[in-house]
Structures
1.
Amino acid sequence: QVQLVESGGGLVQAGDSLRLSCAASGRTFSAMGWFRRALGKERMFVAGILWGTSTTYYVDSVTSRFTISKDNAKNTVYLQMNSLKPEDTAVYYCAAATSGTKYDYWGQGTQVTVSS
């Protein structure tokens, strides 16, 4: 049974940092990533990492502020978020792909709230 368990969300002030974690179990994946959904908006891609090559990719709005990384031994992916802005407020979802970057498993989501 595949499980993605997220942690690390919370309430912070603008300019602060947070680190999200996502522990995966049940199988191996080709890629893992983070998405977010702000209130009243559609879910959008934030960052991803290819498991085999560790290649990373980001949406433009978070490049240079967010860093995705992984720990192979723990089968865990992280999202380090620095210089947070109020517009980063959203529910953040961990996702995993079984083929390429077609994400087909999802975590339960963790709330990140950035106050101004």
Note: DSSP finds no helices and eleven strands in the chain.
2.
Amino acid sequence: QVQLVESGGGLVQAGGSLRLSCAASGSIFSFATLNWHRQAPGKQRELVTSTGSTGRTTYADSVKGRFTISRDGAKNTMYLQMDSLNPEDTGVYYCNAFVAAKGADFWGQGTQVTVSS
């Protein structure tokens, strides 16, 4: 069973930046679809960004131009670079890796991001 461990969350002022990391216990990132989700207080979890093994990447409209997803297969780590943060970005961020060939879906424990105005 692959485990995903997130880090990098915290408190930041509006306009600031954070980089989230998600490290996997196994070598799956090079062929998995990688996603970052977030859940704001009182709201449903939403997909923030997704990148496939071919490199095709999508972003939610609310984060386009501000957030960047990336992966380092050699380090079994994925990242979410978040710039120009605003209070609406506050929430718990979850990394997720989906391996279609195995029907396997792995999730991190979540990391809190709080953006103050």
Note: The first strand starts at residue 4 and ends at 7.
3.
Amino acid sequence: QVQLVESGGGLVQPGGSLRLSCQASGIIFVIYTMGWYRQAPGEQRELVATITSGGTANYADHVNGRFTISRVNAESTVYLQMNSLKPEDTAVYYCNAEIRDRLGRRGVWGQGTQATVSS
């Protein structure tokens, strides 16, 4: 069974940093694009950043210049380095991966990790 497991969330003061990790496990033939999304209370889930298997990154305007996405293909892991955090970055952060496994090509989600920015 394919799983994405996130870690690294927590409580941080404004201006601080957090580093999120997400590792895929299970029988996966190919991992295509991986990414991070977030959902604040009462809001819809929104894109934060994505990265292709070749390393091309894409960022939402509201995090560009503050967040950095990276991945280690050999470890099936994607990271999100979040710097200069603001209270409005508070949300549950979800990892997403487009994969190919025995069920075909599909998207999978992690369970989410909470990041809270507050003084």
Note: DSSP finds no helices and eleven strands in the chain.
4.
Amino acid sequence: QVQLVESGGGLVQAGGSLRLSCAASGRSSYAMGWFRQAPGKERDFVAAVSWSGGRTYYADSVKGRFTISRDNAKNTMYLQMNSLKPEDTAVYYCALILWGDFTPVYWGQGTQVTVSS
């Protein structure tokens, strides 16, 4: 049974930083990714990291501001978010994904990130 638990969300002012974590248990030999869903909008891809951590991919909207990484010894993935903007406000979900098209296979429960202007 796979379980993904996100943490690190919260309220931050525009221009600030947050680091999200996603702790995985069970079968986790997958690529992993972050997605986000703002109120009234669809869930969108944010970033992905390969199983080894050697390859990463970002949505254009976060490129240069967010950094995805993972520590397989700790079964944990991270998302360092800098220069946050109000439009980054959303529930952030981690997922185990298929590398290539980034199709989610398992989801976490989500963590709220709110950026005030």
Note: Residues 46 and 60 are 9 Å apart (CA to CA).
